[in-house]
Design goal:
The protein is α+β, with helices and mostly antiparallel strands. It contains nine helices and 29 strands. The protein is rod-shaped. The relative contact order is 0.13.
Length: 474
């Protein structure tokens, strides 16, 4: 009768231990001693021997006593003897290795968060997380490399690619505005006091050509200088005196801004014209007209303003961070918003030396030919500046680079689930790729997806600390 009762109590203890173990496992709480003690009973259920160590609750509750005790319902606490008492220490690495023979003997246990902390026996960190076992054959070739199981790689969706040489083109975009070329602007004004007799049929917006008459002017000072020049022409040059007077008289006309046609007419007709036809100084459009029939014009008054639009400027503001990518001579594509399907090609001619403090942008000047007069001043345009180079460089996808702020890291795939963190120096970016100037060579395989998950599943942080220690020791 005694053996069936003992067997029944043992089965009850095992079931209670399994149930409580499930609950405790979900809450990360340590197992009660009586559960481990029941689990460690031998299959033969040998008789408990040795002195009584403590007393446990008969209903399997996590309650213990060093002296005999009764429950609230009057049940006696059960005695636990030395032979059935559990050891609160976990199994030694050698014992765990026996159950994991297919993976080899456990060498040590490492910190689950990747910190440079190991233990020869199982332990928990400050947050209650179990240290991870490191088996023989793992991390045996390079202390900086880490190994992740194939199952974890598949679940994490890890993807790799080869570093390859490409021509990396980075396009800097910015808004632009069309402006006049400062070198192709001119005004019509007099160097003497004059009176406008008539203004020819030209208005604002009229295209004129160089030498085309704009207005007819009478100027007393100009007529006086013309009479002096005619007198020198008619005088006989005795002993060279006449020749010097002739040069002086002509120079006076030139200083007054007299047109070449006016001087030629005096020489041809040997008469002083009453009026002078004032010509346009250049080709272009009249953008301003103040001359009116019969008006008096003082020296320096602007009568006409003329601009040539065959070449225009496009002023574009680029962000300060992109300024280092732009050089004089780079090709530019300008798309006026009025003609988005009619792109214009030009080049960067000037990078202005000052930044706008309010917007932290730099101003770039682009020259564009405008033979059809499509581009007009104050037009808005979208500008694309190609900043790439023709020489191919080693590149990887942007997602392959882990940027910590102080350094850039890529995970080098060494095969068989082994990865090595490699510090790199990056260059330009463009087209979803980044230039690797140092740290990688062509055809190196790097992780481009789930690299942060690999960091969380391995001791990558410890490897990075090793890199820091190596730099400090140099």
């Amino acid at each position: 009768m005694r053996r069936p009762v003992s067997a029944l109590l043992m089965v009850f203890a095992v079931l209670a231990a399994a149930t409580l173990g499930l609950l405790v496992g979900r809450s990360n709480a340590p197992l009660p001693g009586w559960v481990s003690a029941a689990a460690k009973q031998s299959p033969g259920l040998s008789e408990a021997t040795g002195p009584i160590v403590y007393y446990r609750d008969p209903d399997g509750l996590p309650d213990y006593s060093l002296t005999p005790k009764k429950t609230s319902t009057g049940k006696d606490y059960l005695a636990v003897r030395a032979s059935e008492d559990m050891s609160f220490e976990e199994k030694a690495p050698e014992v765990a290795a026996a159950k994991n023979g297919e993976r080899g003997r456990i060498r040590f246990y490492r910190n689950p968060m990747g910190l440079p902390d190991t233990s020869p026996t199982p332990k928990k960190d400050s947050m209650g997380m179990d240290y991870l076992p490191v088996y023989e054959g793992e991390q045996d070739d390079d202390s900086s490399s880490v190994k992740v199981s194939a199952g974890k790689l598949q679940k994490a969706g890890v993807q790799t690619e080869l570093a390859e040489r490409r021509t990396l083109n980075t396009v800097v975009r910015g808004p632009g505005i069309v402006e006049e070329d400062e070198r192709l602007r001119s005004v019509v004004s007099l160097r003497f006091e004059g009176f406008i007799d008539t203004v020819n049929n030209v208005t604002t917006g009229t295209h004129v050509h160089k030498g085309q008459p704009l207005l007819r002017i009478y100027g007393p000072n100009l007529s006086s200088a013309a009479a002096e020049y005619l007198s020198a022409l008619n005088a006989r040059p005795d002993a060279g005196i006449g020749s010097q007077a002739l040069k002086g008289a002509r120079r006076r006309l030139e200083n007054l801004g007299a047109p070449d046609g006016f001087i030629a007419e005096i020489e041809r007709t040997r008469e002083v014209p009453v009026y002078v036809n004032w010509p346009a100084p250049q080709d272009g459009e009249i953008v301003e007209r103040t001359a009116v029939n019969g008006m008096r014009a003082a020296p320096g008054d602007v009568l006409f303003r003329i601009v040539d639009h065959n070449v225009v400027w496009v002023m574009v503001d680029v962000a300060e961070r992109d300024l280092g990518l732009i050089e004089v001579g780079q090709k530019v594509v300008v798309r006026p918003r009025a003609y988005p399907d009619h792109p214009f090609t030009g080049k960067v001619t000037v990078i202005y030396p000052h930044l706008k403090m309010e917007t932290r942008t730099a101003r770039i000047r682009i020259e564009l030919p405008n033979p059809e007069d499509v581009l007009r001043p104050d037009m808005y345009a979208d500008v694309e500046i190609a900043t790439g180079t023709e020489a191919p460089v080693v590149t990887v996808s942007n997602s392959a680079v882990i940027d910590s702020g102080e350094r850039q890291i890529v995970l080098l795939d060494k095969g068989e689930g082994r990865f090595e963190p490699r510090e790199v120096k990056i260059g330009r970016r463009g087209g979803g790729r980044v230039e690797i100037r140092e740290g990688l060579t062509e055809n190196d395989k790097v992780v481009v997806s789930a690299n942060f998950l690999i960091d969380a599943e391995s001791n990558l942080k410890a490897a990075l600390k090793g890199l820091d220690a190596g730099e400090k020791s140099q």
